User: Fold this.
Amino acid sequence: MRDAGRAPTAVLLAAARAWAADDPDPVTRVQLEALTGAAEAGDVDAGAELGDAMSGLLEFGTAGLRGRLGAGPNRMNRAVVIRAAAGLTAYLRTLEREPFVVVGFDARTNSDVFARDTCAVVTGMGGRAVVLPHPLPTPVLAFAIRHLGADAGVMVTASHNPPEDNGYKVYVGDGSQIVPPVDGLIAAEIARVASVAAVPLPDDGWETLDDSVLDAYLADVVTVVSPSTPRDVTVVHTSLHGVGSETVRRAFVDAGYAAPIPVAAQAEPDPMFPTVSFPNPEEPGAMDAAIELAEQTSPDVVIANDPDADRCAVAVPAPGGWRMLRGDEVGALLGSHVLSRGAAGGVVADSPECVFANSIVSSRLLAAMCRAVGVRHEETLTGFKWIGRVAGLRYGYEEALGYCVDPARVRDKDGVSAALLVAELVATLRAEGRSLTDRLDDLAREHGVHATDALAIRVEDLSSIGRVMARLRAHPPTRVAGVDVVRTDDLARGDGGLPPTEGLRYYLADDSRIIVRPSGTEPKLKVYLEVVQPVAGGDVRAARQLASTRLTGIRSDLEVATAP
Assistant:
């Protein structure tokens, strides 16, 4: 589209040409030069794209970096990654020791390139860098940090984002993701990198590891299941074109289970994710191929990992077909399974060394289960960067399909170890003639139906999220679905005792809970709903129907209240 409309400013054009001249990648350099030329010639679309690409350096925060691949400072590319690696290494050098960094990468576009650049920067700045031998799951990198005694770890992945994205996740030496103030300190060092040309980039000097780290990870992963539990279980598995297939297969076989039945079309890594519109098992349609295979093979359970295999999704047989369990349901099931092991599984009542945790947007069922048996429970801010830091953590989860079942070895969500624990639970219940659905009914009878739902409002204009949050603060709801709001927490003020974070939390008179917050990784406003419905006379089905009706009413009101 060409138009005689407003031309890009001279300052923007000069900044774009300067960035292109400093770009070490000939591909993105040529892209930016062509975009600049088209914008200067009056191409309105090119001008808008150039303005966005040059709108500022891709923000480095507690999630590290994540964004669209392309040219310019507001995109994921070699120039941005080299700056990030230089900033990280400079920060590590302030700790007054030679930095030791282990780097992992998945199979997304340019993940291997960004991993190599990171190793080159660390080496060129006087540190020691080692890189995993080939594309591997994120939890293998998280494990490798502590296993090797590294000062930090970098995982090049965009997790479950669309194929046009990539990302850069940073861990510190205890194997947990960075949190404030470390993210800010690294960001400040990144800002001091005036030019990529000034960053040394040697051609060698780092070490490419062999599979011994993967072997060590697998040797530890299999210990999450007991050697004495049943092994008779059939699993259909998909990695959604990610890097989890072979690692999951080896983990199952090494633990004594039959290898999962793979969804062949999705078993090999493919950065284009050709069979799914969005490579996130939570998204509609992502599990269709796995469910279709399950209908043909009649397994006991379907398990899916996201592309970097740090998340785990579960589907179970249900009347009329297969049903994907909500993340909160899997979180409760795995939590109950760990609790049921008692002292044999390291669960000690009221011990500071045995703490169960979940994020504030996850269900309150885990807390109720812990109260019933006297086990300590903590609620954290959203994200495993917080859950993984809970002192004495024994088990932690978040509703977005993330489960930490082996925190002594991996202080992050791990879709491989979670898949094994799901298999153990299914096999154990199967031997009793029961199912995961039966166990969920047990939990409902004991603690009430904790029904959850979520809205995700995807936006093109990020400023619209701020406008919705401002509107809710200026005009807070007093009733939702006909029920009084009895408490409002502004999480940005630290209400509720947690560190300040953008979000609002409402409690209704009937103990329903609503949380509204921006997504930390995607252009979305997210709304989390929970109702607690007592089970009268043991009738779980009736209680679930009542809970569903209550959720529907709350959801309807919140769709209106949060409309951009």
User: Anything to note?
Assistant: The radius of gyration is 24 Å. Confidence is low (pLDDT under 50) at residues 1-5. The longest helix spans residues 540-561.
